[in-house]
């Protein structure tokens, strides 16, 4: 994101809080995962890196995750799942790496953890933006994402975008570290007036209780959280305005800058999954629809 808080997927910068809350127990699982995994030497000795060869030899790839539903998390049975880990399982299998091993951490620690070799790949649905592209290299996005609002039933204020929120002087909320903070500020909303809540569940509760008029989040997370609500609904997805232009975010896998061979091989398999339609089949159980499929490239999202 170009404003003070850059869209990350959801987040700001690389050291800020997670866009979504960590699941209970993730920190402990992370410690166990880090201690229990065999470290694969990843220093590049050839142009483009040799990590893929090393992963094939070891038979396992370590995935950095941030405990965020539906992107990458440990489920109630202690199993790794989420859209990014499930996709990683398929692609790395095709690349000759049979197992994936989770290394949970906070979202803001993903890029530092990757570059300090705590894990091999970031598999957390991370938004691609120019700031991050200076620190890591990304695969092409496996999904795109628009925003939407949680409002009271009937949308009494007629809120459809951030400009409406400003014009109607609506009480506005979004989540800790969310990209939507920057989008609202760019539209003219005072940052000091924004109610910051932990996640979309807390946002729904705030709308239902009448503490705010609107909660902003991704189209996917908002539509999922309102499914059982009798008091709230989700608005139609829309593109926020960034730098005066409609903006679409895209989430992808991140790799160390030296490992272009691994990133390129990953992209080849990802493109095959997109073409066959298998990508949507893998992501659909996590709430993704045809609307979230994309042909965006990392180059476009990196700004060049």
UniProtKB/TrEMBL annotation:
The keyword Signal applies. Keywords: Signal. Residues 60-290 form the Solute-binding protein family 3/N-terminal domain. It comes from the Bacteria. PANTHER family: ARGININE-BINDING EXTRACELLULAR PROTEIN ARTP (PTHR35936:SF17), MEMBRANE-BOUND LYTIC MUREIN TRANSGLYCOSYLASE F (PTHR35936). This is Ectoine/hydroxyectoine ABC transporter substrate-binding protein EhuB.
